[in-house]
Specification:
Blueprint lengths: L1 H32 L15 H21 L7 H17 L5 E7 L2 E10 L4 E11 L9 H18 L6 E8 L13 H11 L3 E9 L28 E5 L4 H14 L4 E5 L12 H6 L4 E5 L21 H20 L5
Parallel strand pairs: 3-4, 3-5, 5-8, 6-7
Antiparallel strand pairs: 1-2, 2-4, 6-8
């Protein structure tokens, strides 16, 4: 009788412990993955006239960066310089005064490119949007990250005439790809550390990373463990991703996108150790203590041509990318006007 009672007590304690663990896991997942609003489903409406024009401009940027210029990095230095010159020219054509942020990398001068639109009422508060313009060795980098740079330039166009309370800073970063990733020569880390040293009040940073590939086939989308149990298996959405410290920013950006844009969108704010969550320039701003998120098509979790010579301009879905960029312009407008920090 005593052994049986002990057995029941042991079993009861184990059951209680497992129940508590399950409750904690559920609470953690709900905190990380529960997002406001509902992702769009069903057929997409025809592109508007403005979205159609946006599609053509995006295609032109990607064709020049990944087609005419091609692979661009320190090992193809003239191409890297050509890409920087092109971005600088585009900023100037939109009425921005592009500023250099030069530094030395492997004995060569490289540079981030910065364009700013001062805020109308809270200019000391900065909303930063960035994308890296280098490509990995051996790849022309159409989707990674010609698509992000094209979006950066077109967001500059869409927002140039808007009166935004906060300062809008657009930055094209150099040296995001290996071997500079997570190193002191990563362009975004140079910028983030400099901003922190200057005590700049960056309220939010948005990294545009590989945003141009979409597919509707079941099984076309994959995830790091354990996210596959919670998200769709079709690669037809844009993702908003951040760490736990940037959860409020993820939720705010995704809420606005879902409310204003008829395009599928998913979001997650998860621990930084989850595979892929910190794999872009937003990571640099986490290191400097800023809130930062990545907007992405999830790269290699759906895109078979990632970091290969096959990442060419015709692989990018410019129609769907134009919808995403138009939606992001509305997100940035809202973030730039919010009375409280996201």
């Amino acid at each position: 009788m005593e052994l049986t009672l002990k057995g029941w007590r042991t079993w009861g304690g184990l059951t209680l412990g497992l129940g508590v663990l399950a409750a904690l896991v559920f609470a953690g997942l709900n905190y990380s993955l529960h997002m406001p609003g509902k992702s769009h489903s069903g057929p997409l409406a025809p592109l508007s006239e403005e979205e159609s024009r946006l599609r053509e401009r995006l295609a032109t940027h990607v064709e020049i960066l990944a087609g005419r210029i091609g692979e661009r990095n320190l090992w193809r230095y003239p191409a890297l310089l050509a890409a920087a010159d092109y971005i600088e020219e585009q900023f100037a054509a939109l009425g921005y005064q592009a500023m250099d942020e030069p530094f030395e990398s492997r004995g060569r001068r490289v540079r981030n490119l910065i364009a700013e639109k001062p805020g109308t009422s809270r200019p000391q508060e900065i909303l930063l949007v960035g994308a890296h313009y280098d490509s990995v060795r051996g790849s022309p980098g159409a989707n990674d990250n010609g698509s992000g740079v094209a979006a950066l330039l077109e967001l500059g166009r869409l927002l140039a005439g808007k009166a935004l309370p906060r300062t809008l800073r657009l930055v094209a970063f150099v040296n995001e790809e290996s071997p500079f990733f997570y190193s002191p020569e990563m362009g975004s880390l140079v910028h983030a550390r400099g901003a922190r040293a200057r005590a700049e009040n960056i309220q939010a940073m948005i990294s545009l990373e590989t945003i141009g590939y979409y597919a509707d086939a079941p099984g076309s989308q994959h995830y790091p463990f354990p996210l596959s149990a919670f998200y769709p298996d079709k690669a037809n959405f844009i993702g908003f991703v951040g760490n736990l410290g940037s959860r409020k920013l993820v939720r705010s950006a995704l809420r606005t996108f879902r409310h204003s844009t008829a395009f599928p969108a998913e979001g997650a704010a998860v621990p930084a150790w989850v595979t892929g969550v910190g794999w872009s320039d937003h990571w640099s701003f986490w290191q400097a203590g800023y809130r930062a998120i990545m907007v992405t098509d999830t790269a290699f979790f759906r895109y078979a041509h990632y970091h290969t010579e096959r990442d060419t301009p015709e692989k990018v879905d410019y129609a769907r990318t134009s919808r995403v960029v138009a939606g992001l312009a509305r997100v940035i407008t809202e973030l730039a006007a919010e009375p409280n920090a996201p």
